[in-house]
Amino acid sequence: MSDDDLQSLGARIPERGLASADDALDVFLAWVADRGLSLYPAQEEAILELYADRHVVLETPTGSGKSLVAAALHFRELAAGRRSVYTAPIKALVSEKFFDLCRTFGAESVGLMTGDGSVNRDAPLICCTAEVLANMALREGEDTPFDAVVMDEFHYYGDRDRGMAWQIPLLTMPQARFLLMSATLGDMTAIIDDLTERGGRPVAHVSRAERPVPLHFVYADSPLQDTVLRLVRDGRAPLYVVHFTQSAAGETAGALMSVDFTPKEDKRALRDATRGVRFDSPYGPTLLRFIHHGVGLHHAGLLPRYRLLVEKLAQQGLLRVICGTDTLGVGINVPIRTALFTQLCKFDGEKVDILTARDFKQIAGRAGRKGFDEEGLVVAQAPEWVIENQRRADAAASGRGSKRKFRKKSPPTRGYKHWDEQTFRQLIERPPEPLVSRFQVSHGLLLSLLQRADEVGGDGLDALHRLIEASHSTARDKAEMAERAETLLEELVSAGVVDRDEVGGGPDGVVVHEVSEDLQQDFSLHHALSLFLLHAVEQLDAEAPEYALRVLTLVESILESPKVILYAQERVLKGQLMAALKAEGVPYEERIEALEQVSWPKPMADWIYATFNEYRETHPWVAAEDIRPKSIARDMIEQYASFSDYVKDLGIQRAEGVLLRYLTQVYQTVTRTVPADARTPELIDAMAYLRATLARVDESLVGEWERLLAGKAEGVEPDVPVLIDISRDRKSFNARLRAELHAVVRALAVEDWAEAIAGLRHREPPVPGRPQWSPDDLAAALAPYIEEYGRVTFDHAARMAWNTRVTPDGPLVWRVQQLLVDANDDNAWSIDGVVDLRGDTNPEGPLVELIAVGE
């Protein structure tokens, strides 16, 4: 048997399928045995229950093989010619599972659906987020085309903001069989009883507390650095130091630089592993120092390529310590032996409180590597101020400190909830909290049901009342939601969104509600702000000089606010104002009063608020807080700032990944939502600037999104490959080339030779006959220019389109030339390059290869 057959479970399904559950089970178990695996009792029980056509609630610890049980269910459905779906809470987990299932069942059998796009959406096995399935279930109900549903991380059912997405399929898909999985479910009695009653299919609750790798718990009262050093020396690495803010994780990583726990040979291995890896973002050199010292850093504020590198190094066993946030609890791919909690309290969205037992167990459960460790270790630090007071007391008692009574350190007054060893023990012993229903009614929910009624018949309002009654909410909440449903309907009727008609007349007449034909057919709750964006763009004057910037401002106003960036903008503006007022001799009290009026930039705010309020009169389902004027992408474009300079100017090095993610969202929203006929040349140039910036820094996010839009995912080859040729849209292609060359000229203007080189394409291996440029080479080539003209000019005139020439030079090859504008207006020098897309019509990173610089 080939390795491919051994790996691919899908290859074992005969053409005729496997109608018998027993036959399918035999094939699946043979595949498991051929892989050298043996089932745990909980796995075996769950699989047998699934193959007996029951729902299964699977509550077993992390690392106990829940994924194999899910694979068994998917295999059963595939073998019988039926469809199944896998859901998870975050896109990263969905993507990871998509690739895993492609390897297990074959790429032709697996599809991916996210809010950004889809791959092979008609496949018999679909991976998607819980929200995607919930929207399908609302729209199609019993006709939702899946016979089996795997809901991973089902404890998200109780999430305050998103839990409803885990409940809707349970209420609306009685035809489907469910596998609900989590390590921290808690009391599931009510959900199990409802699931049994709703579909008439029995539910098996498979629950095991025994872990493949048992956990040992320790409470530490030594300083954090001492605790880390002791754990490493005791052979407890790799260890993950858990924080609840990104800044705290970075601070700990920096503090650990003074602790030497990595042998020289491991440091050499880390240097070898990072050789050739770019660390050229503002935070890159700091992260590289951490890594070379043996300390990893992992949180959402880092660039994606840095997070992936840390995960890779951890998987290779090269990092002994990783400082990160509680993302560890939602399945990041970092194998660890020890989980070290720096604190046992966190901000829960409303207040700082002690961790829930569920959050604690989700994180603690990641400790211990199956096949590597005899036990996992979970350590909780005592509060830092308690540890310090004990140190002072010990010093005073030993005579090393002051003979007078020592001064105690006070506990923090903000961002803190006290914990002690008893708190730790309670978290260990306490079961996860019961899952609470998060079902709620909204305009969007009502409209979805009204639209479904228009398509398949029935009454949408009645459907909503039935859904409310079927929900897992309390009787009191159901009554309140029923009243709210009537109120919401009246608002929609008053707004002209829903038409009310009486059919039949007289005492037997029936009132029917239908969604107005004027409402776009593709309406969904998630599209509401996109519809406002289209409405607002139509109000703009496309001939106005600032049209492109105004469109960007509208786009930014409908996106989530990255507060770390906005607060940094506000801090910079306040600093500038304070300096100016000081210089003018303004009294201190007046300066402080003036500073209180300063906020981050909000261009067009009054117009946006007025337009939005007008829009809400006919679209009442849109919440007032959804509109958030701001200027980040626009601010960068107005300054024509590089990513690095903007990060440094705002002092957000530790959160540069947040800026990258935000710019990606801006680019995606313009591309996906702003109509082609509304894109002026200036707006196309702005989009090109954003795309070139993303390519220069880290295009993993936007690159994967573009592949999704084209119907292709990285690492998966469909039957008919879908290739992306970025040169087909010639306007956008030329604009991107201009933007890349302008970024190079900007770097040359400040004599940042390394940044200029980084903005160019470098092939590995080099193309014969094409020069390989270094920063020193570039500096030497421009030395005569600088001697004659003083410096490279970079202003508005230098960025005019006619200074960039793009000339075809054969199929998928172009010659490019960027004129260098000088103070004497000679304009005799230029940067000459080539763009070669042969072999890859959508390469990662910059596109232009440098050929020559000169007259």
Search tags:
855 residues, alpha/beta, Rossmann fold, 5 domains, 6-stranded parallel β-sheet, 32 helices, disordered N terminus
Overview of the structural elements:
This protein is α/β, with parallel strands linked by helices. The protein has five domains: 3-207, Rossmann fold (3-Layer(aba) Sandwich); 215-383 and 418-429, Rossmann fold (3-Layer(aba) Sandwich); 443-503 and 510-515, no CATH class; 525-709, no CATH class; 746-854, no CATH class. The chain is built from 32 helices and 22 strands. Strand 19 (804-808) and strand 20 (813-820) form a beta hairpin. Helix 18 packs antiparallel against helix 19. It is globular, with a radius of gyration of 30 Å.
Structure described in brief:
With 855 residues, the protein is an alpha/beta fold. Helix content is 45%, strand content 13%.
CATH-defined topology of the largest domain? Rossmann fold
CATH superfamily of the largest domain: P-loop containing nucleotide triphosphate hydrolases
Radius of gyration: 30 Å
Task: List the total number of helices.
Answer: 32
Number of domains: 5
Helicity, as a percent range: 40-55%
**Strands in their spatial order, largest beta sheet:** 4-3-5-2-6-7-1-8
> Beta-sheet strand percentage?
5-15%
Task: Give the structural class.
Answer: alpha/beta
Blueprint of the fold:
Elements: H1 3-7, H2 21-34, H3 41-51, E1 55-59, H4 66-79, E2 84-88, H5 91-105, E3 110-113, E4 118-119, E5 125-129, H6 130-140, E6 148-151, H7 164-172, E7 177-182, H8 189-199, E8 203-207, E9 215-220, H9 224-233, E10 239-243, H10 246-255, H11 264-274, H12 284-293, E11 295-298, H13 304-315, E12 321-325, E13 338-341, E14 345-347, E15 352-354, H14 357-364, E16 376-381, H15 384-398, H16 421-429, H17 443-456, H18 460-470, H19 475-494, E17 498-503, E18 510-515, H20 528-539, H21 547-557, H22 563-583, H23 588-595, H24 605-618, H25 633-639, H26 643-650, H27 656-673, H28 681-697, H29 700-709, H30 730-749, H31 753-758, H32 775-789, E19 804-808, E20 813-820, E21 829-836, E22 849-854
Parallel strand pairs: 1-7, 1-8, 2-5, 2-6, 3-5, 6-7, 9-16, 10-12, 10-13, 11-12, 13-16
Antiparallel strand pairs: 3-4, 14-15, 17-18, 19-20, 20-21, 21-22
Helix pairs in contact: 2-4, 3-4, 6-7, 11-12, 17-18, 18-19, 21-25, 21-28, 22-23, 27-28, 28-30
